[in-house]
Amino acid sequence: MLEGSSPPPPLRDTSPKSGPPLSPHFETKWGDETGVKVWVALITAILAVSTSSVFIRFAQADAPSLVIAALRLTFATVILAPIALSRHRDELRQLTRGDLILGLVSGLFLAIHFGTWISSLEFTSVASSVVFVSTGPLWVALLSPFLLNERLTRAAVIGLALAFLGGAIVGLADACTWGKGFQCPDLALVMQGRAMWGNFLALVGAWAVSGYLIIGRKLRAKVSLIPYIFVVYGMAAIGLIAAMFLAGESPMGHPAQAYLWIFLLAAFPQLIGHSTYNWALRFIPASLVAVTTLVEPIGSAILAFFILRETPTSGVLFGGVLILSGIYLSARSK
């Protein structure tokens, strides 16, 4: 907080027009009631989003990536529609043209994120894809001081660096071996052909999710959760449906289990995970929300151990410690 300035009153997520406008400085403390709610919310979001990679792996056995991405957002929007249109109709009507434009742009960023990240898994390894898409918090942190006036302390920068390093280690853990010394794939192989295209798609996904979080941080200051995610998810669904048809894919004719996995993607990672992150954006900086998303590989590794019988390597465990340490430093600095 700026020296000599008085702290703003605690923010409440009630209606978009009630309470003071969001300040770039934060009164939320991790020990007070709001801080506890934020921590519980972030843990819930992490657990929900961590199921994403498992559900996607099962769904990709029977459906193309763009179909999975499009139906994921479509199912989420359809589930939200009765609540948004019945309980929040007046609030939706009160959205200004500027609010709608921001919501639509945020939805397009979300569509690009899912479309590119899920598609990248068809061209490159999961390890490489995670390394590139995990750079999202770096871009959020670099842009937040300019776009959101969210200043980064030295502790936050160190925490971000630790979390980013941990995410890279988790991503590379399955690609590198400790057999005869520490060995990783030749970087030249990563940057060639299909792998290079897949890595580029994952990087685009990181850029897109950065825009999604930054715009969400601005818009959530005055728009309550349900109207915001209804507009954003709906726009993302429209964008992905258009991309799906342009790619010559069809949402029909896939096995029933594919639709089940996609529905679970919409229900848990999307409606619970992403929506909870969006709720938290009203109370904490976008850079901190972005850093907490780096815990997803840890949660995914735990689920893979129990569901897919994949034992996490020492690299995953070490990277997880760095990620948690980075989040702790970033949280204390805020």
List keywords for this structure.
334 residues; mainly alpha; 0% strand
* Cα Rg: 20 Å
H/E series, N to C? Answer: HHHHHHHHHHHHHHH
- Mean pLDDT comes to 80
**In terms of structural class, how would the helical and strand content be classed?**
mainly alpha
Major sheet characteristics = none
Count of helical segments? 15
**Could you list the spans in which at least 5 consecutive residues all have pLDDT below 50?**
1-27
* Beta-strand percent range: under 5%
How many structural domains can be distinguished in the coordinates?
1
Helix content: 55-70%
Distance between the termini: 9 Å
Please provide the count of β strands: 0
Large-scale geometry: globular
Q: Can you offer a commentary on this structure?
A:
With 334 residues, this protein is an all-alpha fold. It has one domain (33-333). The chain has 15 helices and no strands. Helix 3 (65-87) packs across helix 12 (256-280), helix 7 runs antiparallel to helix 13 and helix 8 packs antiparallel against helix 15 (314-333). It is globular. The termini are close together. Mean pLDDT is 80; it is low at 1-27.
